[in-house]
């Protein structure tokens, strides 16, 4: 059985945003899942991803960024997006304290999650998940943000501490 629960998340200095928790009865993990820049948490891709993850025991908490909640087209400033990621992670840990947390998102949502984690650890998050990134960079040679660590000039290599 899959339970669906709508919740509200308080974002510091921005009010509340909507979120959807989908939790299968056999949930083993919870993925805090941010949408991309052009479509919100109810986009068919996000919904089908949540359904597919639930079928293998992964609960999801999908949430809106404030600009999407307010039906604006232009994303919020990075500080607001990062604050929203942190608020969603806090809400997830409070909503499902029994599940290990992972966080990430589609395109911009993944980037904001990685930036939030780079600034300071996301409390309780065991790993990051990124979806739907370009397969090739549009950057000039030598500045390839999509190259594998160790390729190119090495500026994209990020130590993991492992």
Give a concise summary.
The protein is of the alpha/beta class and 162 residues long. The protein has helices spanning 44-54, 66-69, 78-95, 108-119, and strands at residues 2-11, 15-24, 29-34, 58-63, 101-106, 125-131.
Order of helices and strands: EEEHEHHEHE
Helix segment count?
Answer: 4
Biggest sheet record: 6 strands, mixed
* Helicity level: 25-40%
Distance between the termini: 37 Å
Poorly predicted regions are: 143-162
Strand neighbour order, sheet with most strands: 1-2-4-3-5-6
Shape: globular
- List how many beta strands DSSP finds: 6
Decide which structural class fits the backbone: alpha/beta
Radius of gyration, whole Å: 16 Å
Q: Strand percentage, roughly?
A: 25-35%
Mean pLDDT: 86
Describe this structure in words.
- This protein is α/β, with parallel strands linked by helices and 162 residues long.
- The protein is built from four helices and six strands; from the N terminus they run βββαβααβαβ.
- It has helices at residues 44-54, 66-69, 78-95, 108-119; strands spanning 2-11, 15-24, 29-34, 58-63, 101-106, 125-131.
- A six-stranded mixed beta sheet has the order 1-2-4-3-5-6.
- α3 packs across α4 (108-119).
- The termini are far apart.
- The model is unreliable at 143-162 (pLDDT under 50).
Structural features:
162 residues; alpha/beta; 6-stranded mixed sheet; 6 strands; 28% helix; globular
């Amino acid at each position: 059985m899959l339970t669906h629960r709508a919740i509200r998340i308080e974002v510091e200095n921005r009010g509340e945003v909507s979120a959807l928790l989908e939790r299968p009865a056999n949930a083993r993990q919870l993925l805090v899942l941010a949408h991309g820049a052009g479509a919100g948490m109810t986009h068919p891709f996000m919904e089908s991803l949540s359904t597919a993850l639930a079928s293998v025991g992964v609960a999801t908490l999908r949430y809106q960024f404030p600009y999407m909640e307010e039906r604006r087209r232009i994303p919020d400033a990075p500080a607001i997006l990062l604050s929203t990621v942190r608020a969603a992670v806090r809400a997830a840990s409070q909503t499902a304290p029994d599940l290990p947390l992972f966080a990430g998102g589609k395109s911009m949502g993944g980037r904001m999650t990685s930036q939030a984690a780079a600034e300071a650890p996301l409390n309780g998050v065991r790993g990051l998940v990124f979806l739907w990134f370009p397969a090739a960079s549009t950057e000039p040679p030598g500045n390839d943000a999509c190259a594998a660590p160790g390729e190119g000039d090495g500026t994209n290599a990020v130590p993991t501490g492992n």
